[in-house]
Design a protein that fits this description.
- The structure holds two protein chains of two kinds.
- By secondary structure, chain A is an all-beta fold.
- Chain A contains no helices and eleven strands.
- In chain B, strands 2, 4, 5, 9, 10 and 11 form a six-stranded mixed beta sheet that branches.
- The chains are: A mainly beta, B mainly beta.
- The interface between A and B is medium-sized, with 23 and 24 residues.
Chain lengths: 115, 111
């Protein structure tokens, strides 16, 4: 596609509910990144894929967070048993390069609110 | 000390003025530096890369000072459309090429 597409745009979850956030990167982009952005903060790194391989998941805050990219294109970020502190905007970015900061295209994000 | 620090602002600047803000980084292994712009409720977008020799793009000038470990962004003849949050981004090589975002500096251009 022309850009990075994320869905849903907004998600309200009850505490304890599982959620799945989808990212459809730019076609041909080998690198895909997930970031979490809390209100008034900068994006915080969660995880990084190169094609289908998850090369870095050191930013995932707990084992309730899980990401996959099984065919090297679309990625899903899953959060199990959501907590209020999970409320944030989840941004996906893709790139033709690795994590060098250049050439990132971000999606519009999914705004998750846990109530 | 946080790895990337920015003054959160807000910087309230009259239209047409020049404004500058800095970003400091703590890791001397930092390799690449960028400024991203983020509009309210929008995704970040790359504004410009930052090189040791300085980088100018129209009204925007970015500088890197490796000795003092900071980067700067200068905006001349500011426009209302420059109102946004400016994110400092640093790539650290000794952490598997991790990219670290600052919290951002909010800029409001006043008419």
């Amino acid at each position: 596609g022309a850009g990075v597409s994320q869905s849903p745009r907004y998600k309200v979850a009850k505490r304890g509910q599982d959620v799945a956030l989808r990212c459809d990167p730019i076609s041909g982009h080998v690198s895909l990144f997930w970031y979490q952005q809390a209100l008034g903060q900068g994006p915080e790194f969660l995880t990084y894929f190169q094609n289908e391989a998850q090369l870095d998941k050191s930013g995932l805050p707990s084992d309730r967070f899980f990401a996959e990219r099984p065919e090297g294109s679309v990625s899903t970020l899953k959060i199990q048993r959501t907590q209020q502190e999970d409320s944030a905007v989840y941004l996906c970015a893709s790139s033709s390069w690795g994590p060098i900061g250049y050439g990132y295209t971000f999606g519009s994000g999914t705004r998750l609110t846990v109530v | 000390r946080k790895e990337v620090e920015q003054d959160p602002g807000p910087f309230n600047v009259p239209e047409g003025a020049t404004v500058a803000f800095n970003c400091t980084y703590s890791n001397s292994a930092s390799q690449s530096f960028f400024w991203y712009r983020q509009d309210c409720r929008k995704e970040p977008k790359l504004l410009m890369s930052v090189y040791s020799s300085g980088n100018e793009d129209g009204r925007f000038t970015a500088q890197l000072n490796r000795a003092s470990q900071y980067i700067s962004l200068l905006i001349r003849d500011s426009k209302l459309s420059d109102s946004a949050t400016y994110l400092c981004v640093v790539t650290v090589r000794n952490r598997d090429d991790k990219i670290i975002f600052g919290k951002g500096t909010r800029l409001h251009i006043l008419p």
